[in-house]
């Protein structure tokens, strides 16, 4: 069996962490008898030079043939105009392929310091609408300026999109500690986040075995600091999920270690939460843990969809290899270590 | 000289913490030779019973004659319909009186545990527009449902409102550590939060002595955990300010201790960040620190506006009295103590 995987390295530290994740996953899959077929595609600043766009049409066309993609960070604020002012390519990918769910676990890694060592969360972030106006129009943009001094943004919540993200959250809770917290701000954004809340509670009725409660997003931010262990799965709209997932990641150790996938029902994109970190790029300082973890989660997704135990085992092995490498004291400078990105990667592969 | 102050006790623990704040401020002002004239007005659940509305027209009319108001928490989710589904009265007050700035300091109290003991922030939150759709319409609501399955919310950023909130932030920074961080999400909400960012940087030019930088709201949430001491004043739109101020308050010790004022150029409303806490109401368990601190900040505002040193001294004395009372071990149960709300209040007054 062959597993085709598209690889978009991206900018900055992408050129360092993505190859580590690919090498580790290659090994983990091979150990299970699965042959991965990696296809690199033009993306990011390099693609502006070679193809005139950070996300060339050729890349989008090719990607349509892949169910699994590994996507590195982009540094879109440093792109030349007009690309700098266009939506970031990572966001365009989510929209183009209808990757409506962004799943972001937050859990401390044994042996590493954490503000909230007992946090063990899965944030299920709606990725296709909400207050992210750029997602909300089939044609045109959800923001506009009627005069140069007035800007408007249209937030959107639909029953259909809320139902499918709520399904993801409740289904995930069944495989975890069976508890979903719906995060909204329905005391102010009464109709939009109110609809989100109401539909989530309707979906909850199909999962009588899962406990459901709710929090306002402001209180939720404080509660993640005060009593993080009380929460299991959070389900929320796009912007709240963006903020809370960065917060939860930092509480669990470091934003730099946070992994994530974006998925539809059939397609998955591994994408670390961190950015391109141009300040440390090219010097072997980057921590590949987030990227490797993201690829492991993407393999989980593929394994669940195809009931493929070998791919599931490879994902599990990747996570175990991260833990073993950290435990062996192989750490990049962000964790106070002196290993390079490549040394971390070599150790990972050796463990695998 | 008499200083007229309106008092809206509100719901739940309001009936306990507001009287403590009034008694302490009365004493602090009297010690400076200032006679406060306190006028209680109907507000909250009690006003539904007596006047048919949590914010009766009579209260609004009376309030127009006051520059300083002390407002307790409301428990609007427990109001009978239709009041439960109406905008919360505390938010209506902000809109009605054009209280466009919400100032929320976050600083640890000496001797009390804090996740971030070195945090010392002022969050300057725009209070009149932004993603808070309920603020954004002169007529009607900024949210609507074209079909029962689709809800839209209109976010708004204007040059005028951004200029005046930025002025508040930069002026405040001059009295602090001279550093403003503009918090936005202009990589996604490009036009709205982009306009906010751009106007803040324009205003920054009038304050060459103040250092200015910027963060995306998601990164900001993580940075408040990672290196809180690096920030002085944050200026941001309504929703981001709501979330970040709860987070910062919790990091500085507890959301329950966080004070805040809402103000226009001429009017100020003291309003603690915490809610009505109906679960502990009426039992003497409530911590009045946030309410007393909010009244102190309101007195600061009044003192600055009228260049009144006696009122400024009273505000300073209130803060010193909180510190002295906590240092004397008089603490309510939320801080692990066994003092009642009233005992804390009595000690405050004795110190003053
Ligand atoms: C880069 C940015 C557009 C993106 C987002 O806001 O979704 C990022 O912050 C994330 O969370 O993946
Ligand atoms: C009660 C609620 C409407 C209010 C807000 O969101 O502004 C509160 O959370 C606050 O921060 O003062």
Quick summary of this structure?
Two copies of one chain form a homodimer. By secondary structure, chain A is α/β, with parallel strands linked by helices.
What does the model show?
2 copies of one chain form a homodimer. By secondary structure, chain A is an alpha/beta fold. The first copy, chain A, has 2 domains: 1-100 and 259-352, Isopropylmalate Dehydrogenase; 114-252, Isopropylmalate Dehydrogenase. Helix content of chain A is 40%, strand content 19%. Chain A contains 11 helices and 12 strands. Chain A has helices spanning 14-31, 45-51, 57-63, 89-96, 159-174, 192-204, 217-226, 238-251, 289-306, 309-327, 341-351, and strands spanning 2-8, 35-40, 68-71, 101-107, 120-126, 143-147, 150-158, 179-184, 211-216, 233-236, 261-263, 268-270. A 10-stranded mixed β-sheet of chain A has the order 2-1-3-12-11-4-5-10-8-9, sandwiched between helices. In chain A, strands 6-7 form a two-stranded antiparallel sheet. In chain A, strand 8, helix 6 (192-204) and strand 9 form a beta-alpha-beta unit. In chain A, helix 1 (14-31) crosses helix 10 (309-327), helix 1 (14-31) packs parallel to helix 11 and helix 9 packs antiparallel against helix 10 (309-327). Chains A and B meet through strand 6, strand 7, helix 6, helix 7 and helix 8 of A and strand 6, strand 7, helix 6, helix 7 and helix 8 of B. Strand 7 (150-158) of chain A pairs antiparallel with strand 7 of chain B. One 3-isopropylmalic acid sits between chains B (88, 90-91, 242) and A (187-188, 218).
């Amino acid at each position: 069996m062959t597993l085709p995987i598209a690889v978009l390295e991206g900018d900055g530290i992408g050129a360092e962490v993505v190859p580590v994740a690919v090498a580790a996953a290659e090994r983990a899959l091979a150990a299970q008898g699965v042959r991965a077929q990696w296809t690199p595609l033009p993306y990011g600043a390099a693609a502006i030079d070679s193809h005139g766009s950070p996300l060339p049409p050729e890349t989008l066309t090719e990607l349509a043939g892949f169910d699994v993609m590994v996507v590195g960070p982009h540094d879109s604020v440093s792109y030349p105009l007009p690309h700098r002012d266009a939506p970031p390519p990572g966001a365009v990918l989510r929209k183009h392929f209808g990757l409506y769910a962004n799943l972001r676990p937050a859990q401390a890694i044994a042996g590493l310091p954490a503000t909230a060592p007992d946090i063990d969360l899965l944030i299920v972030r709606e990725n296709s609408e909400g207050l992210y106006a750029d997602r909300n129009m089939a044609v045109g943009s959800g923001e506009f300026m009627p005069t140069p001094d007035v800007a408007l943004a249209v937030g959107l919540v639909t029953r259909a999109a809320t139902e499918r993200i709520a399904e993801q959250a409740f289904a995930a809770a069944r495989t975890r500690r069976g508890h979903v917290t719906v995060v909204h701000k329905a005391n102010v954004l009464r109709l939009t986040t109110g609809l989100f809340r109401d539909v989530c509670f309707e979906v909850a009725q199909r999962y009588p075995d899962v406990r459901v409660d709710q929090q306002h997003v402001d209180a939720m931010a404080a509660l993640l600091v005060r009593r993080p262990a009380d929460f299991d799965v959070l389900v929320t709209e796009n912007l709240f999920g963006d903020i809370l997932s960065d917060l939860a990641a930092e509480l669990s150790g470091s934003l730099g270690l946070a992994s994530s996938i974006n998925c539809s029902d059939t397609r998955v994109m591994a994408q670390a939460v961190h950015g391109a970190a141009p300040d440390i790029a090219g010097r072997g300082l980057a921590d590949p843990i987030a990227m490797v973890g993201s690829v492991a989660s993407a393999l989980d997704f593929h394994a669940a969809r195809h009931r493929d135990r070998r791919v599931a085992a490879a994902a599990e092995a990747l996570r175990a290899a991260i833990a073993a490498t950290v435990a062996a004291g192989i750490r990049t400078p962000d964790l106070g270590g002196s290993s390079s990105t490549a040394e971390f990667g070599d150790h990972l592969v050796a463990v695998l």
